[in-house]
Structure formats: structure tokens, C-alpha cells
Amino acid sequence: MSKKIYVGKSNIHMAGRGIFASVDFKKNAVIEVCPVIIMDKKDTNLLMETTLQNYVYEYEKTGCMLALGYGSLYNHHLKPNAKYEIAESNGSHPGMLELYIIATKAIAKDEEIYINYGKHFDKKYSK
Q1: Interatomic CA distance for residues 19 and 8, integer angstroms
Q2: What's the pLDDT score for residue 89?
Q3: 125 φ, ψ to 5°?
Q4: Are 44 and 77 in contact (CB under 8 A)?
Q5: Which H or E element spans position 122?
Q6: Cβ contacts of residue 113 below 8 Å, gap of 6+?
Q7: Which long-range contacts (CB under 8 A, 24 or more apart) does 5-8 make?
């Protein structure tokens, strides 16, 4: 795992764990690259009935995706300091996707890193 980030107690009430910066990140810096598991709509519907609903990202083509590494531990926030982008893996398997976590502004050492999971989660967490 990356030494540029670490898991700690989130600053979000009742969120549990969160991901924090071990170093300062400049705007547009790549924080982490995570392999992903893509779920189809059927699996997404089933997954949304479990605890894993809090650890997946929207993936408009099929339903949702689960990010490996620390990828699924970044907390959702309506005003995030990072974003995710999906790209094809540079590895030897064409069609494999990776999730890039990218700073949208400067992030200071020991600051929690937040992303926005998508519209479904905006509604869910704005209550």
C-alpha cells in the first residue's frame, strides 16, 4: 500500500474510517491508483441491500464498482477535495479498468481526503 496515505478515524460523524494524506498533495496530483471490480445492474441491486453499499462507486455503464486498495475507504463528501477518474489499465489485460484518485485542490499532510461517490450518494448523505 501507498505510504502517501493512511487509514484513520474519519472526521465525519459516524463514518468510521477515512483516508488521510501522509504527505502534502498539490492540486491534480494522483493520490492513488486502484484496480476495480465492475458490478452489473443485478449485482448492484443486491449489493445496495448490504453494508457494501457504503463502499462502492456509481458506474453509469453497468451499476457500480468496488475499488480495491484504499479506494473504497475514501469517504463521500458534498464538497470533496479529490475526485475519481476511471481509465483503462496500463497492464497486460485490455479492458481492465483502474480508478484514479486525484486531488482537486491542495491537500495538507494529515488532512482527510474526500471524494464524491455520485448523485445517488449526494441524495442519501444530504439528509
Answers
A1: 6
A2: 67
A3: -95, -5
A4: no
A5: helix 119-125
A6: 5, 18, 19, 20, 21, 31, 74, 81, 82, 101, 103, 107
A7: 5/31, 5/32, 5/70, 5/113, 7/70, 7/73, 8/112
Q: Which domains does the chain have, with CATH numbers?
A: 26-105+116-125 (2.170.270.10)
- 60: pLDDT strictly greater than 80: no
Tell me how far CA of residue 64 lies from CA of 60, 120, 126, in angstroms.
7, 11, 20
**What's the pLDDT at 17?**
93
pTM: 0.83
Amino acid at 124: K
List, for residues 38-59, the tens digit of each pLDDT value: 888 899 889 889 988 888 887 8
- CA distances to 113, 114, 122 from 36, rounded to whole Å, are 19, 18, 22
Please, are residues 24 and 31 in contact by the beta-carbon 8 Å criterion? no
Per-residue pLDDT reduced to its tens digit, 32-42: 999 988 888 89
